[in-house]
Amino acid sequence: MSDHVKLRPFVAKDLDLLEQLFEDPVEAGEFGFFGHRNPGALRRQWAEQGFLSPQGGRLAVVGEDDRLVGEVQWREVFQGPASPCWNIGIGLLTAERGRGYGTRAQRLLAEYLFAHTRVNRIEASTEIINIAEQRALERAGFTREGVIRGGCFRAGVWRDMVLYSILRAEVMA
């Protein structure tokens, strides 16, 4: 796990790279491109709320010298009528993958969310063939819960997902 990783709010200078991460099929990579989206939507979201709201958010993942390497995000989901939890995701720039940033960023995000929100559970899912992300989640302390059959539509195909979670007591102990 890389020790040179921090999470911070996005700033204007980050937006060009963030847009590439979501709008460029090569930069997004095999598991990150879900088709072209509304151009400029990310910039409008940043301008309106800085990517932070009570229902979710997005933080920059930065390496040494405050260099943007990717982003983490979370959104509120419910596992029961009165049981909110966070579902998290990560996207790293192509050149930054495989360096341990994902493991550290996801652990830092879990620590941040448990310290600043009242949820008891954080979950993450990834395509069943995305072994690198599964390993990163496991190294970050997440537990594999099972397979979500046909849970993700990407590139014209419904794909199976693997669901992971981490609980407050596992992080805050």
Extended strand count = 8
Series of secondary-structure elements, N-terminal to C-terminal:
EHHHEEEEHEHEEH
Name the overall outline. globular
Low-confidence stretches: none
- SS-derived structural category: alpha+beta
Helical fraction = 25-40%
If you had to describe this structure to a student in words, what would you say it looks like?
The chain has a domain of 118 residues: Gcn5-related N-acetyltransferase (GNAT) (Aminopeptidase, 3-Layer(aba) Sandwich). The protein is built from six helices and eight strands. It starts with 5 loop residues before the first strand and ends with a helix. The radius of gyration is 15 Å and the shape is globular. It has 173 residues and is of the alpha+beta class. Helices cover 30% and strands 36% of the residues.
